[in-house]
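Problem 3 from the worked examples.
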Amino acid sequence: MADKQKEILKDLISPKSPSEGEGESDNFKSQILREGQKTKQGANYLYIFVTVIFVFVLVSGGYFLYQNFLKDGSEPSGSKGTVVPVEESQNSPTPTPTPEVELDRAKLTVQILNGSGAPGVAGEVKEYLENLGYNNIDTGNADAYDYEETIISIKSSKEKYLSLITKDLAEKYVVASETEELGEDGDFDVVIIVSTS
């Protein structure tokens, strides 16, 4: 049998004339060629199948990313619940606003200190505040005359008046954004140091 295999291989390798051993070796050669073509054809089918699967995965992945992450710049749709429209009832109660407590400016004791150095500034501020309803006002001079902003100091027990005083003064003066706290045992509820501007 080994001799027969050697002979077949010899026939395949060495060129023969058409008259020599055409029968059996031609059949063997054509069989080998057919099997080689089948293998090539199978490889082609495999290549086409893998390419189709790859394209399908690529397109599906792109569609998934678009739907979940890129569309409308919103969150992924998988994390959202189902949105159900809710009709507003005609009889729903409307919230009533909480009545604002009117603060009585006359209840505060105020000291106005001139921090600008210009004569009469504290008196002008006193007159301005009296026209708004403040009654218990005392005036004097600050420890320095170089204040660039009007400074408000207030007792913590009168903190609710801070926004009112700030608003009143801001209409005419530059008020500092930070306030200082006065001790509860002081003579005045509010101390205002008026600036140059």
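Problem 4, a separate protein:
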Amino acid sequence: MTAYVQECRQEWKRLGVPDLLAEEMATELESDLAEAQADGVSATEIGVIVLFLVAVIVAIVGLFAAASVSVQTSVSPPRPARAFALPNLVGLQACHARRIALGAGLRVQSIPQGRCHAIVIHQSPGPHQMIPFRQRKRITVTFRLRS
């Protein structure tokens, strides 16, 4: 049976099984075959066992090959933002909408004293409007507040 184990080693090498794994599988196969012969298993039964072991080993090798496949993807560096979508500030309290717009790097009209809790019912430029990223500091967002 050592000739059979040698054939298996050659096949594993052809399939690209790592040497350490192939050696471990060969040692296990030799010990299983020797144990089967010692137990008085006939040559036919050993052949069936060997076919089963080969099927298991092929499955293991297939899993190993599937796990070791490397996928190459090209990753390009992110492009700098060229446009900016204005946030939707309609429906928010005036001071909260102003803080959001300032946090986004926009200029915002001043809110009259005492109108901080008034609700924004319109904004200009409109929500989700795209503006060039470099111009966001030049555009002033204005609000129409509920009376």
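Solution to problem 4. The chain has two domains: 2-68, 83-145. Residues 33 and 46 are 7 Å apart (CA to CA).
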